[in-house]
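Lecture 7 notes: from sequence to structure.
We start with the chain below.
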Amino acid sequence: MTYYGIENSEGGLLQTVFVCSYMVFAPIFGYLGDRYSRKAIMAVGVLFWSVTTLTGSFVPASHFSVFLLCRGLVGIGEASYSTIAPTIIADLFLASDRTTMLTVFYFAIPVGSGLGYIVGSSVATLMGSWHWALRVTPVMGAVCVVLVLLVMKDPPRGASEGGEKLKPTDWIVDIIELLRNRSFMWSTIGVTCVAFVAGALSWWGPTFLLNSIYVQGMTGTLAGVSLVFGVITVIAGILGVASGSGSSTYLKKKYPRADPLVCAFGMICSMPFLFVGAVLSKYNTVSAYVLIFFGETLLCFTWAVVADILLYVVIPTRRATAAAFQILVSHALGDAGSPYIIGAVSDAIALGRTSVLAKYHSLEYALFITCFVNVIGGFCFLVTAWYIVEDKAAADKVIKEAHCEELAEIKLKSNDVQEITMIDLGNGQFPINGEPQRPI
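Predicted C-alpha cells for the same chain:
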C-alpha cells in the first residue's frame, strides 16, 4: 500500500479484482471441464497463472491500474484448476476415500494462504522488496504444470461410481437442475459466508493486529505480524480441515445428515472466538492470536466437507459446472467484496482521523461484520441438513439408472453376437461359439 500510495479501500480492491475475475471465468472453465480434457485445461490455466503473477511483480509504482489488471488476470488462471480438480478427485475415489483425498486437496486453501504470508514476508525481508514475493510462486507453478502433464490422470467422468455412460446435458439444463437442488443451493450460500469471513480476515487480519500492537505502545512491523498470522493460518487450516472431514466421516456412519451439521457447528462456534479475540487485542496481542487461531480452526471445518456435499448431491457430468457455479456465487457475494467492504466501512468510521487509536477502532468495528455473517452461514448449513438425504438419493438414482442401462446394452450386444454364431448345419445341430449343440 505504501509503494503505490493507496488507502484501505484501494488496498481491499486488489483482492476484489482478483476474486471478480476468478468467479467470472469459473463458469467458463466449469462448462469446459464437463466436456473436454481436464488435464489440458488445468495445465494451460496454471501456466497462465504463473506468467501473470510474475508480470505483476515488475509493474512500477506509477501504474497501480496495471497492477490491478495483472491481479485480475491471475484470477483467470486460478479459476481453471480450482474448478476442475475436485471433479477429478471424485472420479478417482469413492465414499470415505474421496473424503480423505478432498481433505488433502483442501489443505491447500489455509496452508497456501498461510505460506503466502510466511514466504512472502520472509522473501520480502531477505531481498528488501515485496516484489520478490511474487517471483517465487511462478517457479512452483511451473513445477505444477510439469506434474499435471506427466503424472496426473484424467479418468472418465463418473468412473468411480459406474456413471461413465452419463451424457452431458445443455448448460441451461444444468443450471436449472442445480437451482432446483436444495442441498446444493443452501450449502452454496453457507460457503459464501465462509468465503466472506475468510477473505476479510486474510486481508485485514495482519493490519488490524499491527494496529493493536501500536495501541498498546509497542513496536512491530507488518512483515513480522504477517509471519505470525501466516503460521496461525497454516496450523489452523490443517487442524480445521482434518477435524471437520474426520468428524463428518465418523458421524456419517450413523447420521447421514452429519456433513452439513458439522459445517454449521464450525461456523457458529467460530464466531465468539473471533469476536472476543478482536475485543481483547488492544489489551493483549498474544491472547488475540490464540482466540483467532481457534476461530480460524473452526471456520476451516467446512472446506473439504462442502466439496464432498457437492460431489454426492450432483451427478458426475454436472459437477464441474456445479463447482463453477458455487465459486461464482461464493466469491461474488463473499471474498470478492468483503475486503473492500471492510476497508470502506473502516474508512467511513474513521472519518478522516489518522491517529493510531482511530485506525484501530475503525477497523475493529468493521471486522465485527464477519461475526454476523458467521451466524448466517451456520443457519444455511442447518437448512442444508434438512434436504441432504433426499438430494443424495436422487443423484444416486440417476447414476444407478445409467449404470443399469450400460449393463443392459452390454448384454444385448452379447446376445446379438451369440445369435449370429448360430448356423443351421442341416442335421438339427447349431454351433454356438464353435461348440455343437442339439436344440431342445
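Points to note: The chain has 16 helices and two strands. The CA atoms of residues 156 and 366 lie 47 Å apart.
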